Amino acid sequence: MSGQRVVEAAPVRGGGAHADAGDGAGSAVDAAWVGLQAICTGQGEVYGYELLHRTGAANRTWLVGENEQERATAQVIAATFGAFGTEELAAGRRLFLNLTRSFVTGQLPLPFSPEGVVLELLETVDVDRRVLQGLEALKQRGFALALDDFDGEEWRIPAVALVDYVKIDVQVSGDRLPEVVALVRRVNPAAVVVAERVETQEQFQVCRRLGIELFQGYLLHRPDVLAQPVLSASHLTCVRLIASLSDREVALSRVVDLLSADPGLSTRILKTVSSAAYAPAGGITSLHQAVVMLGPRELRHWAVLVLLAGPGSVQVPEQTLTWIFARAEACRLLTPTDPEAASTVGLLSAAAQALRFDVSRITEGCALQPAIRQALLDGAGPLGAVLEAVRRHEGALHERTAVEPGTSRPGAARPAGLRGPALPTATGTGSGGVPVPAFPGALRPAAVSAAYLRAHVAAAAKVAALNGRAVQP
């Protein structure tokens, strides 16, 4: 199995993962990276994957000091649960995640469901009273636990008694491997032993004779490095969100506005709420619903993690943001029967265009209501008809403003730097090639134009308010 790919996920995109999103000093498009190494049974079947920190296509990362390790953990969490989604990465298998002391003791948050996740206590963490209390608390939350790189150290034995998995580095233990395995069996007979860094058939056979259950190493699988393009989550948005959520009297609409201002963060929130621990049976209908379901505490945790995960990213340009808001608001105004769902369709379709890839990439991992998903992917149903009408209006405006440089009309809200899917200008078919019938009265060009003008004014006001200034007349 050496060198064989054992997980199907988005492949490394070469130079494309950091594709430019437009003109300017920076890009609103970023890339989430993660490494995966399979953990296998004695029969070679994949049991789970260890999540590895990666910052690019290079299949190795060197970390020095606890601060770097904490940032690495935050980046892995953000990539796994906010960009890829656990189903895409693991396909129902377990994911093993390394934790530093601050995450174990609760100083840093773990804002995700325990389902299918195994938390690994790194060998660099001192096993003291606070760490043991943290492990107990994590077990009570439903997490499975693992102890990484155990080599018989006496000071780590209290942790052995608590965990579900004990990982032993066969290269380090060497001839003492039988002794270390026997110690684990005495202290915690229920623990599953994982042999790490298994690189030869001889090592594999020795481990099997000792009754070791799981195996990890180059003999079985070399790590995959996966990349997923995402909209950058602005650190300014995170700071504002944390500040707003600290006020118990903050209006829910203010929180939704802040999240809507950052498509990168809002799509991560939608994917988080799509996990089995939160997702409603009928699917998510709006960002407003996702905020209510997640709650202020978990929202603060996600904002903290994004802040910790890396240096500040370039904020989405105001022009782009106004265009995104305008599309979402126009869809909402044109759908009085289901305004929140229509707004979500507008928001996600615009975010996909800003990212410059197919909208299916945005919807992956999001447990959206079927009507929303069909509208986004196929242009189907009443919501698809509304989105198509708005996109046609934008296409007409874009054609006009393309020959009128410097115009301040609403059509200019779609920035020239966004080179996403061509906006539809022809009649007869929807964005997915689905036939679109003649528009009813509410979606005739004059009605759409009036709604879009109102939406653009509202969007400009919202962007100005979020940036703490008055609307320009």
UniProtKB/TrEMBL annotation:
Gene3D superfamilies: EAL domain (3.20.20.450), Hypothetical protein af1432 (1.10.3210.10). Residues 399-430 are annotated as: Disordered. Transmembrane segments: none annotated. PROSITE patterns: EAL (PS50883), HDOD (PS51833). SUPFAM superfamilies: EAL domain-like (SSF141868), HD-domain/PDEase-like (SSF109604). It comes from the Bacteria. SMART domains: EAL. Coiled coil: none annotated. Residues 231-417 form the HDOD domain. Residues 409-424 have a biased composition (Low complexity). Residues 1-237 form the EAL domain. Pfam families: EAL, HDOD. PANTHER family: CYCLIC DI-GMP PHOSPHODIESTERASE CDGJ, PTHR33525. This is EAL and modified HD-GYP domain-containing signal transduction protein. It comes from Kineococcus rhizosphaerae. The lineage of its organism: Bacteria, Bacillati, Actinomycetota, Actinomycetes, Kineosporiales.
